[in-house]
Design a protein that fits this description.
The protein is α+β, with helices and mostly antiparallel strands. 32% of the residues lie in helices and 22% in strands. The chain is built from ten helices and 19 strands. Helix 7 crosses helix 8 and helix 9 runs antiparallel to helix 10. The longest helix is centred in the middle third of the chain and has 21 residues. The C terminus is likely disordered.
Length: 384
């Protein structure tokens, strides 16, 4: 089990003051206050983990509006995070929109453009928030804070990765019994929970044989039996204190064919080149190309059909994106994946993925599992 108290703390209370500075600097969309409606952003700013709520960030006040289910939980979680806020309980979702009793008259109120539906925006503008000066669309304000992780966040991602590694190590021998993809995925998921994670960070991917050539094959709906002589792509993660881990390993059941072994060798070399390219100041395109160049030279450029990676944190996919079309430049504290792959339906698929934290002179892996193709030379399961 993970002892959260043993992990570095996160200074959640310092996040709203940093956000207020961004509000004033948001160019033509500068605003006096921000209504945060994306739940993961509410959690980041306040520590509140409920499934319904809105957070109103005012110049000198913070108001959390939720419903009666979370009255005690909201107060407890904000206090634990050291966040001072007025917690208000609405009877319905409509009452949450009204932010009852809060005077925002004459203010330019920012909305999270990617988290508010057109219907909600119209309801705010015509019914619930008619007294504000202007509703202002904003993009990426809270996300721009989330993109750089502090030591506490990195520790939670690494703790989740440690549980994930231990889970896969402990269920590996089930492959000798030729389970279905669903059965093996379920075994991983169950072990992740047994080892103390909140759950999986996304739906576990187990793709064997031709299914491995489908980058996001769904194990949960698959009755295909894993047999000898196949490549098996396993892409999965655990969740610790809201933070995700993400790792892919490709293993073989028995001896690989000549082509399968070449696929493994090429992807492993490409993945290492990508990891070696990660450092503060490197562009996402440079990291992507470091992987892609090796696969292209091997003659499989068209079989690497997705981007090289993505950010990881409170969401499994977040900025920065590591692709050929990205405009991102990496900075210390970014946490990204490096996951090239080659997919040949007649031979299977190979993908190898690590999650790393960017440093000034390189990166540090947060996923520590061996990349050996049969898993049998792995060390003892990490302690958790």
């Amino acid at each position: 089990m993970i002892d959260l108290a043993s992990l570095p703390s996160m200074d959640i209370a310092a996040r709203v003051p940093r956000l207020r500075v961004l509000l004033a600097e948001h160019g033509d969309n500068a605003c006096d206050a921000l209504l945060v409606t994306k739940l993961v952003n509410i959690r980041y700013l306040s520590g509140f983990t409920g499934s319904a709520g809105m957070l109103l960030v005012l110049p000198d006040e913070l108001v959390l509006v939720t419903d009666g289910r979370y009255r005690d939980q909201a107060a407890e979680q904000l206090a634990a995070a050291g966040v001072e806020a007025d917690v208000r309980i609405g009877l319905t979702m409509a009452r949450q929109f009204e932010i009852v009793g809060v005077d925002v008259t004459g203010l330019r109120l920012g909305l999270e453009a990617h988290a508010v539906t057109w219907a909600d925006q119209r309801a705010m503008a015509t019914t619930h928030l008619t007294f504000v000066k202007e509703l202002v669309p904003t993009t990426g304000l809270v996300e721009s804070l989330r993109i750089v992780k502090d030591d506490g966040e990195v520790a939670r991602i690494e703790a989740a990765a440690t549980i994930a590694t231990a889970a896969l190590t402990r269920v590996r021998d089930l492959l000798d019994e030729h389970p279905t993809e669903h059965e093996f995925g379920l075994a991983i998921d169950t072990e992740i929970r047994r080892l103390g994670a909140e759950g999986t960070s996304f739906e576990t991917i187990v793709g064997s044989g031709p299914n491995g050539a489908k980058p996001h094959h769904r194990a949960a709906s698959s009755s295909r039996q894993i047999v000898d002589g196949e490549l098996v792509v396993i892409d999965y993660g655990a969740l610790v204190d809201g933070y995700c881990s993400d790792m892919t390993r490709t293993i073989t059941t028995g001896e690989p064919s000549t082509t399968q072994q070449r696929m493994l060798d090429v992807v492993r070399a490409a993945q290492q080149a990508g990891v070696d390219a990660v450092r503060a100041g490197a562009t996402a395109v440079q990291v992507d190309e470091a992987c892609r160049a090796i696969i292209r030279e091997a003659g499989w450029g068209d079989e690497f059909s997705h981007g090289t990676g993505h950010g990881v944190g409170l969401e499994i996919h977040e900025d920065p994106r590591v692709t050929w079309s990205s405009t991102a430049t990496l900075a210390a504290g970014h946490v990204v994946t490096v996951e090239p792959g080659v997919y040949l339906p007649e031979h299977g698929g190979v993908r190898i993925e690590d999650t790393v934290v960017v440093t000034a002179d390189g990166c540090r892996p947060l996923t520590h599992a061996s990349k050996n193709r049969d898993l049998r030379t792995w060390p003892s399961p990490p302690t958790t």
